């Protein structure tokens, strides 16, 4: 059973625990009631989608136990017999309706469509069918969840039935962890910034996921699974904003009117490719430097990862990060060596092959000339169909934000890893090969064409007059060739210059921060800091000690200077004067 298998193979211990608990509730219900006596309320939302697949897994495991097959029941023998009820409303989003019916078709659901209100529909259903228990996708925090437990009799005045709530204790994070881990379809509205879907009259995308598109002044939204604070899941349940104003009304978390252009969060991940970093042979200096550069243009770095010089390692990391971030920066593992697997890894992550790139091959030709005994075309391959070279006169080689593992060595596997991550092959790139020819001339005994390969169909060369070799861009993944901070500074400057003439990277408002130092103990500050986080959910509030018994440093960071100032003043007012002093 694919759902159970996906969870068992996951390394998310929290998700496994939630899954096991929910499956237990489902199997208990199936032991207490016959199939004819249970039903499942499905509305096409994320919660009921999770419940659908939990029920599929739970029924499969229940059947396996019933026939004493020790879970060996074949998927082809498995059908989903639980009656599914759908309350169709005229105010529902068309996307919700179509997803509901498509899902019913895909999984063979016995769908009973009810056009009455919930209470009247239940009364009619329970009169016609012997249903005694209904599985519901209710979670704590939902308006209807108050006072409910996993097994809760219906409320007075309603038809008599048992409410079964397998995901009652699931969080917003748990829901998305399940959907993404199991790779099951969900309604397309969630990829458009909707985090909680009601009717067309009271639901809009969540303003906290908004990204400004400077080209046409139109708001775009990140997917729902990128909402970092699940408490703000229902922030989109309000009246629609007026398109003329371009602003959303205030969300219900105490914020002032949210200007989506200022408060939209842009996130990036950084991937370093290099066994030498993991062995501790060298220090990863580029990661922290890149974090500072991204922060300076208003971006948030969600994660820094270091992976081995291995195509699969690169591909797996790129695949995880490319869907969860606006941009992925990857460096290392570029070149002709056996360990230079970055580009191949990116191609694999995107599901494309590496294909020859004439432009890159030409760069390699100028870079390395005839010194390579291999074929430049093998070095000038890019992920097919998703790559572009970023040119700048200061850069001798094109980039793709990832560092480490770039070159001709056996361990330079970054490009191959990128190709694998995109699911494309490495293919020769003539432009990159020409760069390599000029760069390395006749010093390479290999073939430059082996170095000039890029992920097929996804690669783009980005030119800049200061770069000897253009940068390489594979959709939202940029590979960096920098090996030290000086080289990174040069490549970053070129990238920012390119951005000013294109929409390559959104330059957002920089963060504003204040740092306070205090000798107060952790016990004294813990509760006030927790309350401060609730009072200012739009700000990052963190703290650390430079030594175990040294002073505590508190950082308040956000896009709104007035909010940052208000938060620091609020904290100081909770203690005696002089308890905190600001540091630069």
UniProtKB/TrEMBL annotation:
Pathway connected to this protein: Cofactor biosynthesis; FAD biosynthesis; FAD from FMN: step 1/1
Catalytic activity: FMN + ATP + H(+) = FAD + diphosphate
An example Gene Ontology biological process: FAD biosynthetic process
All copies of domain MoaB/Mog, residue ranges: 269-439
Pfam families named among the record's database cross-references: FLAD1_M, MoCF_biosynth, PAPS_reduct
PANTHER family: FAD SYNTHASE (PTHR23293:SF9), FAD SYNTHETASE-RELATED FMN ADENYLYLTRANSFERASE (PTHR23293)
Protein name in the entry: FAD synthase
Lineage: Eukaryota, Viridiplantae, Streptophyta, Embryophyta, Tracheophyta
């Amino acid at each position: 059973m694919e759902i159970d298998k996906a969870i068992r193979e996951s390394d998310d211990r929290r998700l496994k625990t939630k899954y096991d608990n929910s499956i237990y509730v489902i199997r208990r219900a199936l032991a207490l009631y016959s199939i004819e006596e249970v039903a499942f309320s499905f509305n096409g939302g994320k919660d009921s989608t999770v419940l659908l697949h939990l029920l599929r897994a739970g029924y499969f495991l229940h059947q396996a136990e019933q026939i004493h097959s020790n879970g060996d029941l074949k998927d082809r023998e498995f059908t989903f017999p639980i009656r599914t009820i759908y309350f169709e409303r005229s105010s529902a989003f068309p996307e919700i309706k179509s997803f509901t019916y498509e899902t019913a078709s895909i999984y063979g659901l016995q769908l009973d469509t009810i056009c009455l209100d919930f209470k009247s529909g239940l009364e009619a259903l329970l009169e016609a069918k012997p249903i005694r228990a209904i599985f519901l996708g209710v979670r704590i925090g939902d308006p209807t969840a108050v006072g409910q437990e996993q097994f809760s009799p219906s409320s007075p005045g309603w038809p008599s039935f048992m409410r079964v709530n397998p995901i009652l204790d699931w969080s917003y994070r748990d829901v998305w962890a399940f959907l993404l881990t199991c790779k099951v379809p969900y309604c397309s509205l969630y990829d458009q910034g909707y985090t909680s879907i009601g009717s067309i009259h009271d639901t809009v995308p969540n303003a906290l996921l908004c990204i400004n598109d400077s080209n046409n002044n139109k708001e775009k939204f990140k997917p729902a699974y990128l909402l970092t604070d699940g408490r703000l899941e229902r922030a989109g349940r309000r009246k629609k904003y007026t398109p003329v104003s371009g602003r959303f009304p205030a969300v219900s978390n105490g914020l002032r009117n949210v200007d989506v252009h200022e408060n939209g969060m842009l996130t990036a991940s950084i991937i370093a490719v290099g066994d030498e970093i993991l062995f501790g042979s060298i220090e990863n200096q580029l990661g922290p430097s890149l974090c500072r550069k991204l922060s300076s243009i208003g971006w948030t770095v969600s994660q820094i990862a270091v992976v081995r010089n291995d195509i699969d390692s690169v591909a797996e990391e790129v695949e995880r990060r490319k869907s969860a971030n606006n941009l992925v920066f990857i460096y290392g593992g570029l070149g002709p060596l056996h360990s230079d697997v970055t580009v191949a890894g990116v191609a694999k992550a995107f599901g494309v092959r590496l294909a020859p790139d004439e432009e890159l091959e030409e760069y390699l030709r100028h870079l390395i000339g005839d010194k390579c005994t291999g074929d430049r075309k093998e070095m000038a391959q890019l992920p097919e169909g998703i790559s572009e070279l970023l040119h700048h006169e200061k850069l001798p080689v094109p980039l793709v934000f990832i560092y480490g593992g770039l070159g001709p060595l056996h361990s330079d596997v970054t490009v191959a890893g990128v190709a694998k991550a995109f699911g494309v092959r490495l293919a020769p790139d003539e432009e990159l090969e020409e760069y390599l020819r000029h760069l390395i001339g006749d010093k390479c005994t290999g073939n430059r064409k082996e170095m000039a390969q890029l992920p097929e169909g996804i690669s783009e060369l980005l030119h800049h007059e200061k770069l000897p070799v253009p940068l390489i861009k594979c959709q939202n993944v940029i590979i960096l060739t920098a090996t030290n901070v000086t080289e990174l500074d040069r490549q970053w400057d070129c990238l920012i210059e390119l951005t000013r003439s294109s929409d390559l990277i959104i330059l957002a408002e920089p963060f504003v921060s204040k740092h306070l130092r205090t000798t107060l103990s952790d016990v004294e500050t813990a509760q006030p800091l927790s309350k401060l986080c609730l009072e200012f959910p739009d700000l990052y509030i963190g703290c650390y000690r430079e030594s175990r018994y040294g002073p505590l440093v508190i950082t308040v960071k956000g896009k709104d200077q007035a909010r940052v100032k208000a938060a620091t003043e609020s904290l100081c007012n909770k203690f005696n004067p002089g308890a905190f002093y600001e540091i630069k």
